Amino acid sequence: MAGFFSRSARATAEEDATFDSPPLRPIVASDAARRVELLDSFETAGLGWFWATDAQGRIIYLSQGAARKLGWSDDEVIGKSLGELFIPEKIDDPDKPERPLAFLLRARNSISQLNVRLAIEDKEVWWEIAGKPQFDDKDRFTGYRGSAKDITAVREQQRDERRMAQYDPVTGLANRQRMGQRLTEMLKAYRNSKRSCALMILDLDRFQHVNDSLGRAAGDELLKQVATRAGRIVGTKGEIGRMSDDAFQIVLPDIDDRGALGDLGQRLIQMVSQPYIVSGSRAIIGASIGVAIAPYDGLDTEELTTAADLALQASKVGGRGQYRFYSSDLKDGAKNRRQIEEDLRDAIDNHQLAMHYQPLVCSKTHMVRGCEALMRWTHPDRGQIAPSDFIPVAEEIGCIRQMGEWALNEVCRQATGWPMDLRVAVNVSAMQFSQDDFPGIVKKALAESGLAPDRLELEITESVFLGDTGRTQRMFGELKELGVKLALDDFGTGYSSLSYLRNAPFDKIKIDQSFVRGATEEGNNNAAILSAIVSLADALNMETVAEGVEAKDELDLLTERGATLIQGHIFSRALSSEDFLERLREGKLKYEPRGPAKYRAARKTVFRRISLIHEDSRYKVVMRNLSKTGAMIEGLREVPLGTQVVLDLGGGQLAVATVRRSKGAMLGVEFETPLISDGADGLCTRHRVSPYQIEAAGRPLAALPQDPYSLIMAEQIGANARKKFIEVEVGAPKPGSGY
Ligand code: C2E
Ligand code: MG
Ligand code: MG
Known about the structure:
Elements: H1 7-18, H2 32-44, E1 49-53, E2 59-62, H3 64-69, H4 74-77, E3 86-87, H5 101-106, E4 111-118, E5 126-135, E6 141-150, H6 152-166, H7 176-193, E7 197-205, H8 207-214, H9 216-234, E8 239-244, E9 247-253, H10 258-272, E10 276-278, E11 281-283, E12 286-294, H11 301-317, E13 323-325, H12 329-347, E14 353-362, E15 368-379, E16 383-385, H13 387-397, H14 400-416, E17 423-427, H15 430-433, H16 438-449, E18 456-461, H17 469-482, E19 485-491, H18 498-503, E20 508-511, H19 513-516, H20 526-539, E21 543-547, H21 552-561, E22 565-567, E23 575-576, H22 577-585, E24 604-614, E25 617-626, E26 630-634, E27 636-637, E28 644-648, E29 654-663, E30 666-671, E31 676-677, E32 683-684, H23 691-696, H24 708-712, E33 726-727
Parallel strand pairs: 12-13, 15-17, 17-18, 18-19, 19-20, 20-21, 21-22
Antiparallel strand pairs: 1-2, 1-6, 3-4, 4-5, 5-6, 7-9, 7-12, 8-9, 10-11, 14-15, 14-22, 14-23, 15-16, 24-25, 24-28, 25-26, 26-30, 27-33, 28-29, 29-30, 31-32
Helix pairs in contact: 8-9, 9-10, 11-12, 12-13, 14-16, 16-17
The chain binds ligand C2E and magnesium ion (MG) (2 copies).
One magnesium ion is lined by residues 372, 427, 459, 489.
């Protein structure tokens, strides 16, 4: 306490130590002069200030130091009301409403430890004030007497600590804890006001690779850039937080339109996937996104996060670089995937894998010029499983190397038995390519089968360039030395950089089917891209293969633009090894184009039992194919053209449609509003039946059940309602057909 005694007081204390102690002189309550001196020294030391107001609330005293802090002279302060010294405080935290100063003063309440901010413009200074109302002997209010102290530094420190606990130090974004808190509060509030809220989880692909190869500092720098890019796209539409090493969460209030969310997801993926420069090096990462929407897919934080996570897992399994909406099928999908995982390990040993061959046909002569080997898996219970479903799983669980080696041996062995020297292409996963002994495996397959090396072509995708450049170059060199050919698969879908092409010894570029699709439609610039790729390949002395050609107009366009080879259903699907061999033996080397004259909006063949609603009746029908604009339905007889129906596509997805074709039990319907992409190759409706609607129909609020429509329409749609149309039983397709 000695610090705030005045100088003269301290001198006396020192003298006390050297001389005989003079008599003790305590400051008694009646010694006003010495008490004032004591308070004076307290004020001068800046340890605290005093203030007083009159009965009208006007300041009649304020310690000098305090007035100086405010930049006011004594004269300016006197006569102001106490409230004028401070900026009225906003009540930030609804759980702890702090009564504002004006309220306390008006009510003549005591003020204790009230934090107030000084009314100074360009500086943030905080005081903690206390005060007591004073009353005279007739109990009349005479004003306040109070004290104040500066707590700016303490508050700053507290704020920093709070920030540290709520924000991620690397990116400055909200951390997992804050996001969780925000989401919980929001979902609770939104439930009451019947609003919706979307949650996206964005996961970076190959971030670990950057961290490992360029170091942690570069990894941190990259994350900062990701946060900035994502922030630019999300803007004020939502809040972004960092959840873990390489996962971000985005909370988007008041959005349930899956069309808008899909567009946002797509833009985020595109932006995040552009190259970065970190620590002077170029880095490329990708992103996958899972989307879930409250209240449809979950009501509380846990339910919604689990749903978004499942959607994220699905987008990763689907090949990464995609967004995916949650749907209740994904729960089955996750189970399905585990099943695939378990069964895949034994697939080779149990002889369930087979190599099929799809011809590559010369665009000018329509003669077969080569083929691509494509893996097929026949599951004992589930029939054919598509490579797009099992190859990513094989990559994840690490058995792709073993499967790839098996494929290579199998193809080399079969190709040596063909009656002509046809070249055969084998797909090589980036994971196989990263194996140091990969050239050795190829060499062995060639040696054991006796296949001439130049008949073997290896198809690799652009993702191999993400590895160590030096290693990749060495690998190319060793493979070329063996005499095998190299093709760049799915060109244009990955991390295409023309510099890759300059340094890599490819013999062939395979143009991905996404460029062929729609190339013949007016206003689509795929045709221009196709021409550019073909001339680039010509200049580099490489052949071009157009993948996935289905329609005659596509074939014409590609032939005209100069693609060397055509691969697609227009000539042939992949054939079993026996069928392919038979064609070769019979010398049927020329392929006839067979397919629709024009490309139509992708119509997916499906077999899905759905319901069709017409007036008060609900019919069981089978959907045969589906596109954005319409569907083919089987199971109702003699439905007049122009009839308005509603298709219940499941999970609360209702699509209003008009019957445009009707023949026997087949109906062609056109949707009133086109469907949108679900991020994978499926389609979905923009909107769904809202759980709030179900709640309004008297049910408890819950995430969407499988068949929400029947809940809200329970009364209207009775089993007894007289049905206008005749239902026809539709049998299940044979297993494996339509594949
Ligand atoms: P990819 O290498 O790009 O193979 C071309 C895909 O396009 C094949 O799909 C083929 O059946 C399909 N396709 C060909 N013409 C058409 C057409 O006109 N229309 C349509 N819609 N599709 C057409 P598939 O057999 O389902 O294989 C998918 C992917 O799985 C392949 O894409 C490849 O990346 C991977 N894959 C297949 N077999 C193997 C393998 O043995 N090893 C590895 N690592 N990957 C494989
Ligand atoms: Mg391929
Ligand atoms: Mg391809």
